[in-house]
Design goal:
This protein is mainly alpha-helical. Helix content is about 80%, strand content about 0%. Belongs to the tektin family.
């Protein structure tokens, strides 16, 4: 679980870097397109260059949106895994505490039995199951 969390964390960092790398090309395309569309009426031409700029603008924004979506999905996965990891750690602490309590109780109860008693006989005595067991 911890290895998977680290893997997702590295993926998030690479996605953040990729999103940051998309900022400058996005600004460039937007500036070029804006400059071209603000030309005086006579200079505004719907030619191949304008079509290419519009196409490039759409491509850059689509890829940027896809990266941001992947980043959000990775963050959601990371937070879910992290919360699950915290629950598992807390459960493990509780179980270790319960085992320690059981171990201490076993140490306390040892003097209550005879020296020749086996652990099986002690456990049967603890559970009051002597009447329920079939002995041969």
């Amino acid at each position: 679980l911890e290895a998977n969390i680290q893997k997702v964390d590295r993926e998030i960092e690479s996605l953040r870097a990729a999103v940051a790398d998309k900022i400058n090309p996005t600004k460039l395309v937007e500036t070029r397109l804006e400059t071209r569309t603000r030309r005086p009426v006579l200079e505004r031409v719907q030619d191949k260059t304008m079509g290419g700029l519009i196409e490039e603008y759409e491509r850059v924004h689509t890829s940027s949106n896809m990266l941001e979506k992947k980043l959000q999905e990775a963050l959601t996965t990371y937070h879910g895994m992290y919360n699950h990891h915290q629950r598992v750690k807390k459960d493990l602490e509780y179980k270790n505490q319960a085992l320690e309590t059981d171990r201490r109780l076993m140490e306390i109860r040892k003097p209550l039995h005879k020296e020749d008693d086996t652990e099986f006989k002690r456990n049967v005595g603890y559970c009051h199951m002597a009447d329920e067991l079939v002995t041969d």
